[in-house]
Amino acid sequence: MSNMNVIIDTLLGIDGALTAAIVDSNSGMILGSGGSGIDLELAAAGNTEVVRAKTKTMKSLGLKDSIEDILITLGKQYHILRPIEKHEGLFIYAVLDKSKSNLALARRKVLDAEQALVM
Fold first, then answer.
1. Among 43, 95, 103, 110, which is most exposed with the fewest C-beta within 10 angstroms?
2. pTM of the entire structure?
3. pLDDT value for 74
4. pLDDT tens digit sequence for 20-30
5. CB 50 within 8 A of CB 70
6. What is the distance between the alpha carbons of residues 63 and 112, in angstroms, rounded to a whole number?
7. What does the H/E/C string look like for the chain?
8. Is residue 1 predicted with pLDDT exceeding 70?
9. Distances from the Cα of 26 to the Cαs of 17, 31, 41, 51, 109, in angstroms?
10. pLDDT of 42-75, one tens digit each?
């Protein structure tokens, strides 16, 4: 992945960003990451299950659609999971400090990062 470090740095440049990663949803493994504040290995593996569960549910419902992003709102954090359209099985995972971030702008910047990812 030629520009993965640039993408991670871009994600970490989002206001309130704590950590970010590119995750393989087939294995739960992190392909690239940066930042701190949470156990990213554990979070990536757990959120892989979130992505898998939503995909399975969509198939069961016969929905012919794709996930744009999944937002998990905690008391103090936003967790954004965004499947990478060009690379099936990979997703962007970003954790933001809720008090320091603008959710709409963060989602836009995650989209921009996804579109810039070249592998």
1. 103
2. 0.93
3. 97
4. 999 999 999 99
5. yes
6. 26
7. CCCHHHHHHHHHCCCCEEEEEEEECCCCCEEEEEECCCCHHHHHHHHHHHHHHHHHHHHHCCCCCCCCCEEEECCCEEEEEEECCCCCCEEEEEEEEHHHCCHHHHHHHHHHHHHHCCC
8. no
9. 25, 12, 14, 10, 25
10. 999 999 999 999 999 999 999 999 999 999 999 9
In the numeric block, the tokens 């999971």 are attached to: 81
Distance (Å, whole) CA 20 – CA 80: 9
Please name the amino acid found at residue 91: F
Q: Which two tokens stand for residue 48?
A: 């892989």
Tokens representing 91 are: 């997703």
Residue of 10, 5, 39, 28 whose CA lies nearest to 91: 28
Length of the chain: 119
Q: Which residue has the tokens 């809720």?
A: 98
